[in-house]
Fold this sequence. Notes:
The complex is a heterotetramer. Chain A is mainly alpha-helical. Chain A contains three helices and no strands. Chain A starts with a helix and ends in a 13-residue tail after the last helix. Chain B is mainly alpha-helical. In chain B, helix 1 runs antiparallel to helix 2 and helix 2 runs antiparallel to helix 3. By secondary structure, chain D is mostly helical. In chain D, strands 1-2 form a two-stranded antiparallel ribbon. In chain D, a hairpin with a 4-residue loop joins strand 1 and strand 2. The chains are: A mainly alpha, B mainly alpha, C mainly alpha, D mainly alpha. Chains A and B meet through helix 1, helix 2 and helix 3 of A and helix 1, helix 2, helix 3, helix 4 and helix 5 of B.
Amino acid sequence: MLLNQFLILGAVLFAIGVYGVLARRNGVMVLMSIELMLNAVNINLVAFGVQHGVVSGQVFAVFVIAVAAAEVGVGLAIVLLLYRNRRSINVEDFDLMRG
Amino acid sequence: MVAQNIFFGVIAAIVVVSALRMVTTRNIVHAALYLVAVLAGLGALYILLTAEFVATTQVLVYIGAVMVLFLFGIMLTKAPLGGVMEMTGAQWPIAAVVSLLIGGVTVYSLMARFGSDRLTSDGPIFRTADVSDEVFSTYIVPFEAVSVLLLAALIGAIVLARKD
Amino acid sequence: MWMLENAFIIPLIPAISFVVILLFGKRFIGPDRVHVVGITALGLVWVLSALAAFQWTQRVEHPPPDAVVQMASHADDHADDHADDHADDHADDHADDHVVVSENNSGDAHGGGHSSPLIRPVISTFSQWWSNGGIEFSVGTLVDGLTVLLLIVVASISLLVHIYSTEYVKDDRRYVHYYAFLSLFTAAMLFFVMAQNIVQLIVGWELVGVCSFVLIGHWWEEKPNTDAALKAFLTNRVGDIGLLVGIIVLWGTFQTFDIDAINTLIAADPGAHHLALLVAACCLMAAVASKSGQFPLHTWLPDAMAGPTPVSALIHAATMVVAGVYMIARLYPVFYEGLSVGTSSINLMAFIGGFTALIGAALAFAQWDIKKVLAYSTVSQLGYMVMALGVGAWTAAIFHLFTHAFFKACLFLGAGSVSHAAHHTFDMRKMGGLKKDMPHTYRTFVISSLALAGIFPFAGFWSKDEILLGSLVGQKNSYPLMLIFGCVVAVMTAAYMTRVIWYTFHGEFRGEGHPHESPKMMTTPLWILAGMAVIAGVFNLPGPVLEPFGLEGLAHRIQTYVEPSVYLSGLGLSHPDPSLTMALVGLALAVSGIVVTYLYYWRRVGLHGMTERNRYAKNGYTFLENKYYLDHLYNDVIVETVKRPIANWANRVNQNVLDRVVDRAGETARDTGRWIYKWIDQGAIDGSVNAAARGADSSGEGLRAIQSGKIQNYGQLLFGSAAVLAIVFVIVV
Amino acid sequence: MEATGFDTWVLSLAVFLPLVGALVIMMIPKAYEAELKLVALGSSLVALIVGVYSAFQFDYGAAGDLQFVVDKGWIDVINSRYIVGLDGLSLPLLLLSLVVVPLCLIYSWNHVPEPGNTKAFFILLLILSTGMNGTFVAQDMILFFVFFEVVLLPMYFLIGVWGGEERRYASLKFFLYTLFGSALMIISFLALFFLSKDSSGELLHTFDMRVLSDVAGVGIIKNTQVWIFAGLFMGFGIKVPMFPFHTWLPDAHTQAPTVGSVILAAVLLKLGTYGFVRIAIPFLPEGAVSWAPWIGLLAVIGIIYGALACLAQTDMKRLIAFSSVAHMGFVMLGIATLTDFGINAAVFGMVAHGLITGMLFFLAGSVKERFHTLEISRLGGLLKSVPRMGWILGFATMASLGLPGLAGFWGEFPAILSAYNPGAGLPEETFRTYMVIAAVGTVLAAGYLLWLYQRTAFGEPPEEFAGHEIEDVNRLEWIAWTPFLVGIVLFGIWPNLIFNVTDDVVSGITASVEAIVAGG
């Protein structure tokens, strides 16, 4: 097996995730796309860990999963809150960053 | 080796197609299910990479917990469960261009750098015990930090989502 | 020679006085007593300057061995290594590395009374003023005859103006600031005249400009005053472009800022670097034109009369405005070589000077404001000095600078005295007949006017004579056009001064109230200056005048003491023989100017009566009629042609063209600024930034799409730029 | 040479003491306002004292060498180290930055701008201080970059929270502009990391600025140098700011609170020019030579353009902001000549501009506080209503237009002078043209500044303010301003105080550039 198989798969998934984050209007969908990107990174970590014969790759992958779980928790809570206040989870309706 | 490659090919195809469908489908529940497919496929690939613990965690945490969370989120926000809605914003062409650029440049650099590197097949195989040894020795501080992070996220999520 | 080596003390005293007055004036000294500080400081300065002058004469009379320049036939072999010396080692005592300059006697063909020994200036330096590229640049003093002459002039006039001002600006709104800036101005001017290098020249040059700005705008509540102050400063700044560029060209050519070194280098090898010197000289001429009120940058000077009159006397007549003349004299080899003064028969400097002298004099006729008449007269006289330098009459120019300072200061202070008496007006139409009420002012004014007109034996006669003679003889060639300019101006000067005296002091009083003589504090300085206007000429009497008295040893004192022969003889500068004919012609010109004008005004009074009688006389009084006909002809045709159309034309050109150009330049710059700001900056550049952001936002909402506040737009930007950067990185690495 | 004993700590103390102060303040509740302020002022003053100590311990004979050097491991993975050091180039700027912050704290002692919150305001100022000090002493590119970016965030908040009407727009514009530049800059840093070779052709893989400055880009071919320089040029040029990247500056200045403007003008803009002198030119001499004529062109355009824009302004603060564009044009012109004179003048110009324009912004802030407007047409007669402030404004105006005898002159004159004989390999005629244009710029500078002064200070005060009793310069303002005024006069009278310190470093830089140009 080539190392690149995994790396390129990761890259493609990452790019798809980016597309999802940028293009999707639904807040939940955006969060899901972010999960996709995180998973893309995880493949890289594990693949490099195997390549270099170290366990750190797996350890970091586990950490990433944990952090992702935390992120989903908080992210969904925020989406929920927004929905409750605005009756919408369409990210295009939110321009809170506007100066 | 051939078997492995075929396995990889099949799984990778499933993963990529599911991922594409996930970001293009108009039904949010379908999207969630496609995500499950992607995550499961990745879990399988972890097995292929001899990372059993990661694969297990993937299944347990992602497919078990995170997906349930997502489905709850979808329900609570009263998304049209079976219905079809315009899920993609008007700016999708820009998003597509940007993601193609990113994907393209990344793939190009990977090809250039790791073009023909083979995965070492004779390297050590790390079992769950090895991972736990590493986690509780070298990475004890990050581990604790992640624990605290999870706790904080838990409390934060409760505070945010509370009704009053 | 202590004073010459420690000359830095002289500007230091008024500088300290400035700080003391400004910081402690109001609170500790008392706002009505600050002049004590100023006058004390200036008294001290005057004594020290006199001491310096005395020590300089001693140095010339009994030169110490290291001060004399030995005669050598060739200096060429020294020229090359000299550049390095000066660039590397400025802190060194300059006595060591002075190049021996050949005395090129070819210029003595005219056989002038050139017998002065070649004396080195006294240079003291304090190293480490600033440094660059491993080279230390020093600050220091260069004291020679020219410096001590200017020291005396500045110190004397400034002291007298300080005294005069105690009455003139008494109870002024800003008495303290007035004296503070008089002190600062004096310090800056003294610093300027003893500059050892051209950077110091710039510093002094700009500082006097600022003091002039502050003092012109002394009464800044009124907009015309501030306009005048701004105009003065900005016009000077325009000239400063020339100063900066010229000095940079000099630096680029000689790799040193040291005035002495530059002069010596040029004198040692005239003819080298001609192009660079030409450029430098032309650039510096722009600076001179702005500071010394030369055409076409002279327009600020009459406006500068908005300041208090003593300031006009000090800054805009006697000292600051001669800074340009001084700079030419100081860097004379640059101009001499750059403009080929020695060999040409007309050059930029001579022409600008002569032309300025002419238009200044013409304009003086058209003014009703007594100070403006004097201002244009100053322009004209400065033109005279520049012209003198342009024809190679170095000493004559400096001599004229010296004498002019006294009588012009006296005239200005006299004008101030008149206005003090006549309810603060400067309009001559509201004066008249002040002769009997203000005898002191009248007498001193007349004396100074005669001196200005160049009447024997007053000071102006001698200096003007030398200038005319210099233009007649020139160096290799004579300067015929300059001679004509000089002669015409001599007539006109005498004429307009007579006009001023007529309107101010003679005839009927046309103002309001009762004029009175000014107090002693004002008349005393007037008399001192008038005295100088009488006797200042003796400092450079030609030999033949003194011969009958057996005093020929005292002839040409200024030439002997002041002329920095080290450089000038290297250039081959010569002096013409005194000429009785020229003196008589000059005197005749001046007298004719006075007489004609006097007759004009005198006849004019009678003319009204005569014209009425004329109507009766048509029947038979042909003889009388003829007489008046001649008069009439003269008045109407000659004088009127000269005076009205030409002077008015000149005035109109001045007001409408030159002044307008200056104003328009300012307005254009402002409008351009507005336009650029509106269309280019806010429109194009800022617009394109915003437009780029707008393009990214396909929903096209809002002008500033870059801050749509939508996460996804930011995300697109972020990831997009990341991708682009990555691509750039991939390509580069 | 590595420092020993207490000297090891000097620079780190000077850099991090304000940060420590900020951390301490975070612990203090808001209610204890007096204590908060004292801690803030104390920490910045101690940092200043440490800085002054370093200035006294500094070996001026060896100003060209780094002193007080500390070299410790930091991020081993990417071979980035914690290296700080002080040489003649850093010293004046470090001191400037150390002096400005306590003065700003004093100035805002009793009037933190709307919406108040002294605690947050002071914390941000202290963090800003750490970032600025660190940038000037960092000798490792990653460390430099970190400090460079640390500056960004506090300033963003200072403008965005305490700014004027349009603050959000201005702060975001500032942030994005600078971030964009930084991104290109870090790319160039990475390129330098990957491409730099030592003289034997070995890849270095180092971020150590000392090493990179020594090898002077020998292993990098000219084309690549030009590209990398372009990245650095964008990063630093936006910060300077150079025409045409200057449009963030007027907005940021106009909207920023007074002390924000002062720090922005006095120190932040210098990070860009400092970067040119410290990094861009010595690391990539060939790239610098190729770029210099264009930098010079943009610089003179900036000089004229900034001056013309100033003539169009109706707002005093915006006018001063545009004058910065013009003044930094002189600095960049000096740098572009690649000569001793030019670069020395540039460093001098940085300090002088910091003092003078900082002073002008202080004045603008105080005017705004008293008259609640900066519209030039509504002001007037300052000399009458607030005479002392009017005089100080006059003084600062004169200094700003480059009056000899005050600090501004020594930044302008040698810069113009240097353009007459630009460094090796640069087109002489082009630079001589720049010289003349720059000289014209000095006239325009006098024009807009004096016009400003005439309209604001001369004449009678307008009617709307005529009857009111308006406070003249108060005690806190005197304390905050006096060092600026003294500095302007002191450096103006004795410029060698700075030239002498910077000259060795600058000579080293120009000599290496010359050697490269002659060799290549």
